[in-house]
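ugh ok so i messed up the first submission bc i forgot one of the chains. this is the corrected input, ALL of the components this time, i swear. 401 residues overall. if the numbers dont match what u have on ur side tell me asap before i send this to the collaborators (the ones from the other lab, u know who)
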Amino acid sequence: MTDQCLNPEELAELAAEDPRRAHVEGCPRCQAIMTSFAAFLDPADIPAGADLKDANARLSAALDREIGGAVVRPAPTFWTPFRVRALASVAAVVIVAVGLSLVRPGSKVMTNSEPVLRGMESPVAPFRIDLARLDDGRFQLNWSPVEEATGYRVVIYGEDLGELAGFEVGAAITFSFEAPVGAAFCRVIAFRDGDELMKSEPVYPGAI
Amino acid sequence: MDAHFPHDSDDLGLLARAVANPESPAGRHAASALLGRYRERVYIWCLRYTRDHETALDMAQEVLISAYRNLGSFGERAAFGSWLFSIARNRCLSELRRPALLVDEEADPDARASNRAAPDRELEERLDEEELKALIQRCLDPVEQQALWLRCFEKMPVEEITALLGITEASGARGVLQRARRKLKAAIAEGDS
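and heres the new structure output, hopefully the right one now
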């Protein structure tokens, strides 16, 4: 190694017009490191004996242990304590509200076509959506057309149940996306002339 | 319809979030996502050296955890990938014995029983790395130079050198290395006489 030789990080980031290239191109050491770095970044051929599935699962688990609790896990379950508490709270409110509406004179029975709970955004009538992982690691949602719907919105929620991202997809019934960091679940909302018509069931990218 | 999240696909963005608030869920998410992107590459890199799944997993785990614990020292560097590559490379190099420049039993099975091994090693030890490099540059063609350097100083297995350099001759890097050694020995012998 000479004074002119670059360290691996410098070599990896060397710009095309960098004057130090003159040295690098004639130096076996620098050339070898650059070749190595290219192979590291883009491992085109996988060495014999590789078990990528096992490696990914075990390294992911090891990182989870090291980094601690709230990390992106390979297959998160929906029933985390926070979600259980949140759902229990919503369920309790629904039960009380329905009970009150039933004992009040003139109250109506809940149907899918008209809202009955004050503050609820839309009647609960989830429709089914399918979520698949594409070859490039992204996700694709597919669903059947909802009767009377004129447009759809795809919403991705975080673990705090807040909206991470939302996409107006028009009348399309398929949508692909890269799950943002922290994505917990997503759903599709059907609209009729701007009014919310129906929500899909939630689906969980992390469970695929 | 198609959607991209460029802010989430940016290593440095994830790194900034991971370093800014390492104990928060958002910071941990970012660190996990960042290292998750390179998990497989680090494993494959380690496997190139070790050729053993379990050993490669152990080494890859050490590399990733070391990187996580030192995210704060990343500083003003330009790219996370090259920093992680440095860590992985150092880890692999420290694990392996350096093959001799002039005698390599793996690349040249005939060298195993050779009595010339000790004198060759002795000769090699007389030269420092700079002299060796000058000799290599003077005597060998570019592919031979790179193959020998990858083998001797980057400690890369012969089969991996064949793949990395795209060597198509039947004997792969083994033939290139044997030819390079013959040339070096001849040049050294000529210099000594």
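quick check: Chain B is about 65% helix and 0% strand. that seems consistent at least. Confidence is low (pLDDT under 50) at residues 1-9, 112-119 of chain B.
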